[in-house]
Amino acid sequence: TATSLRDPNSPQSLARDFTLTQLTQEEIAVLAEADGGDDGGEEEEAVRLKTDQTFASATLYMSTGGDSWTDNTGWMGRSGGDLCAQSGITCARDVMEVTDLPDVDDGDVSVNANGNNNGGGPGGGGGG
Predict the structure, then answer these.
(1) Phi then psi dihedrals of residue 105, to 5 deg
(2) Which of 52, 55, 60, 106 is exposed most, by the fewest CB atoms within 10 A?
(3) Can you list the pairs that 35-38 forms with residues at least 24 positions away whose Cβ atoms lie under 8 Å?
């Protein structure tokens, strides 16, 4: 991933840049004050969760051609920063769950495109 982040055109680099645009100045300050330990408190935990989820969803979008998805409603800031308003995403207690995107099964998140024209996953066409 470090190599990918050095390439300004990689999905990871583009997702990092996008993620940084989604943070408020207050959230940036919380991260800047964090020492990387596990005792940063609820505010730091919430900012880290938002940052991680924004980066993950942006990387998924960029790496699977999200601009050409049949339904990319709410993705890439189109939902006013509400990650839970993205098509194919549901949230429980502020934690995202991908429910209807590229055909992927990593043991933690199962994703199914159901014809979303994303070109990702096995067979290249989604459509699970």
Answers:
(1) -140, 105
(2) 106
(3) none
> pLDDT tens digits, the chain, 128 residues: what are they?
678 788 888 999 999 999 999 899 999 898 888 766 656 688 888 888 889 989 998 998 898 888 888 888 888 888 777 888 888 887 776 666 666 654 434 343 334 445 555 444 433 333 33
Cα–Cα dist 81/59, whole Å: 15
- Is there a contact between 128 and 103 (Cβ–Cβ < 8 Å)? yes
**Residue 36 near residue 46, CB atoms below 8 Å:** no
- Could you give the CA distance from residue 75 to residue 28 in angstroms, rounded to a whole number? 22
Cβ(107)–Cβ(123) below 8 Å: no
Q: What is the CA radius of gyration of the chain?
A: 15
pTM: 0.70
Question: How far is it, in rounded angstroms, from Cα 77 to Cα 61?
Answer: 12
